[in-house]
Amino acid sequence: MIPTYRPSLGPEELSAVSSVFDSRWLGMGEITREFELRLAKFLGARHVIAVDRGTAALHLALDAVELGAGDEVIVPSLTFVATVQAIRMAGAVPVFCEVTPDTLNLDLADALGRITRRTRAILPVHFGGLPCDMNPLLAEARRRGLRVVEDAAHAFGAHLPGPQSGNPRRPDLLQFRRDQEHHLR
Residue 24 CB: number of other CB atoms within 10 A? Predict the structure, then answer.
C-alpha cells in the first residue's frame, strides 16, 4: 500500500490526548468547548458546534435550513457517500451535477440547469484543498431563493477572492481528518 499521509505525532500530541483521558470527558468536555470557542474566533462566527463525524455535521447543517420531505439538494457527483447520506437523512433528494475537470468542484452551469421547482439548496463540496468559487454560486442561489450548505471538509479555511470556505454566515461542515487536506490562511 502507498500511504497518502503520514501523521506527525510526538510527545505534545500524546500529552494532549492524555489530558483528555485524565479529564474523564471524552466527548463534550472543557477541551471540546475550548476548541469550539477558538474555532468560532478564527471563523468570526457566533457559534460553533463540534460533533464526532462529518455526516452528523452535514445532517445538522441541512436540518438548520429546514428541508422538507422530497425537497431537492443539488450536489456534485464527485463527493463522499456521507454527503448524500446526510441529504437523505434530512428527508431530501440528492440531485447530482457535474464537476469541472480542472478543479473537480461543482460545475455551476450544470448545477443551474438541474434546478427544478423542488430544489431548495445547493451543497458544494470543496475538493482536495481547493475551494469552490463561491461568489457566482452565492449570487445565483440568492437570486433563485436557494440555500447554500457547504461541505468544507477538504478545504477548511481555504479561500479564493471572496468568502472563505467555512464562512460563518452559512451552515457549513468543517471536518478535521488525517486523510484530508486543510489549508489555513
Answer: 7
The amino acid present at 77, given as its one-letter code, is: S
Q: What is the mean pLDDT of residues 131-158?
A: 88
Q: Which segments within 13-155 are labelled E, that is strand?
A: 72-76, 93-97, 119-122, 147-148, 150-151
Residue-wise pLDDT tens digits, 13-66: 999 889 889 988 877 888 889 988 998 888 787 888 888 888 888 898 899 889
Helix axes 54-64, 81-89, angle to 10 degrees: 40
Residue (of 107, 99, 108) closest to 77 by Cα position: 99
C-alpha cell at 112: 443551474
Which residue is it, cell 456521507? 82
C-alpha 92/C-alpha 21 separation (Å) is 39
Integer-rounded Cα radius of gyration of the chain: 17
